[in-house]
Amino acid sequence: MTGTPPVFPKTFLWGSATSSHQIEGENRLNDWWAWESAGKTTDRSGIACDSYKRFEEDFDLVRELHQNAHRFSVEWSRIEPEEGRWDEDALAHYAGMVRALKKRGITPLVTLHHFTNPQWMARSGGWENPRSVFWFKRFSCKVAEVMGGEVSLWITINEPNVLVHKCYIEGDWPPGNRSLLRAVRAMRNLAKAHRAAYAEIHGIYRKAGWDRPMVGAAQHFLACDPLNAASLGDRMAARVRAGINNGAFFWLGGARRGLDFVGVNYYFREVVRASWSVKGLGFLIGKVCAAGLPEAAAVRNDLKWEIFPEGIARVIRAVWRRFGLPIVVTENGICTHDDELRNRFIREHLRAVGECIQGGVDVRGYLYWSLLDNFEWSIGYFPKFGLVAVDPKTQNRTPKPSALYYASICRAGGLT
Question: What gap in Å lies between CA 408 and CA 371, rounded to an integer?
C-alpha cells in the first residue's frame, strides 16, 4: 500500500479498548477468578492494572494521547454478585466511568459482556442454560437504565465465536468442556441473548425519550486463505473455516436482526489446508498451517500470529457487502516487544481501513487493542498489546513510543 494517505471523516472515532477483567484487578466473583484459582492459567490476574481504582488516571492518558473514543466493559459479577441482587455501588462506579470519559471529551463505547460470567451463572450452566438469555437481558436492562442517557454506542457481547471456541471446542477456558453439541447450544443462547439485549436497550431509550443509540456486537473476524489455491480441498476448507468463524453467531439465534452496526475485531490471517480427519470438524474446516504461505514467513507477532494488513480490508469489505451497516473496528492490535513493529502495524492497518472508507465503506472508528499491557486470559501477562506499559509492582503507566505515534495520527485525524 503506497501513494497518498487515505482521508478519514472528520467525525471518525480514534481510540483504544480495554476489558474489565483484564485491567480492573480483584474480580473475585466471576468464573475466570475461580478458573485461575484452580491453577488453570499461566498467570493469575490478581490486581491486574488496578484500573478499577485508577480509571481516572487511565482516562487522563486517553485524553493526553489525543484519542476521542474509548471502549471499556462492565463486569457483570460486580454488578450482580448474586442472582437477582444488584450492587448499586458497582453500577454507580461504571456510570461514573462514562461521565469521566465524557467530561474529557471522549466518546464511550460500553461492552456488556467481555468473556466473564458471574460464578452463580457459571454454576447454573453458564451459556448452555437457556435461562442465560433471560439473565443477560435482565442485566443489560439494569445497566442501560442506569447509564443509558449518557451512552450512544453499546456492544452487547464481545467475540462470541472466540468465547465458544475456547470454552467448548478447545476447552482451555471455563468451563473447560469439549463438546460440539454444547458449543452449538451456547452459541445459540449467546445469539438470542444479544437480540434480547438489543431490544431491551432500544426499548429503554424510547421510553425515556433519549436519543436512539447504536447497538452492535463485536465479532472476531478471520481472513482465511488456502495453502494451495489449486487444491479444491484447500479452497473449500478455507471457505468453510471462515464461514463458520465469521458467520455462526449471525446464523444461530438470528443475531443479524439485532444490529445497528458491526464491531470488527481483526488480528490475523489463517492459511488452511484440507484435513481428512474425522475428529471434530477437521474434515470440514481443515488444518491451520503454522508456516503459512511463503510471503507470510517474514513478520509475525510474539504469539506467532501473521501480520497481514490486507486481511482487515478484506474483512471490512466482506462485512459491508453482507450487512450494509456501519462498521467500527472495535479491536485491532499487536503483541510485541518491538515498538517500531507496532508503529508499522498501526500505520499499515489504518491505511487499509482508510482505503476501505475511500472505496465507499461506512467505517465510523478504529479502536486499538489495547490501551494498557494487561492480563491476556490463559496466556497470562507475557503478550504486550498495550500502547502503555504498566509496571506490575508500582502500577506506574508509561506511554510507549508507539502510543505517541498513534497520538500523532489521532491528533491529525489521519495518516500524514
Answer: 15
